[in-house]
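Researcher: We're teaching a course module on how sequence relates to structure. For the next exercise, students receive a sequence and then see the predicted structure as tokens, so they can try to spot secondary structure elements on their own. Here is the exercise chain.
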Amino acid sequence: MDDGNLYLIVKSLHIISVIAWSAALLYLPRLFVYHSDLQAGSEASELLKTMEYRLGRYIMSPAMIVSWVFGLLLIFYFDVIDFSQDFWFHSKFLLVVILSAYHGLLIGYMKKFQQDKNVKTHRFFRVINEIPTVLIILIVFLVILRP
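Model: And here is the predicted structure for the students to work with:
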């Protein structure tokens, strides 16, 4: 396999993992919205705990790790970035770091729900559910437009 095909495969896998990560970042806080209104220990609360855990553990976190791995491969193995001139990349990278921090924040909230210690309201989770949407829109525009 030549480097051209390998590049396209790595780029495709990066995009696929970013899509999976984004979907999970949008879905987990939505589960928190519903979970925050439930009585701790109820059957519905326990079901949501399972759903949240599986989403975070088996989809969201692996997708984030794979996104980072393939993104870094694109940067360093395929040398697609000119660090001296690519302002768009520095901006995108900062937004991805913020998105990763948001990911960590969600994992923290998930752990609170797992321990029946959540104190946040459904309104709070509705608001923070918009954060990844805004970040993803900005990242996509930076990647496509490369201002």
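Model: If you want an answer key for the exercise: The chain has a mean pLDDT of 94. The chain has one domain: 3-145.
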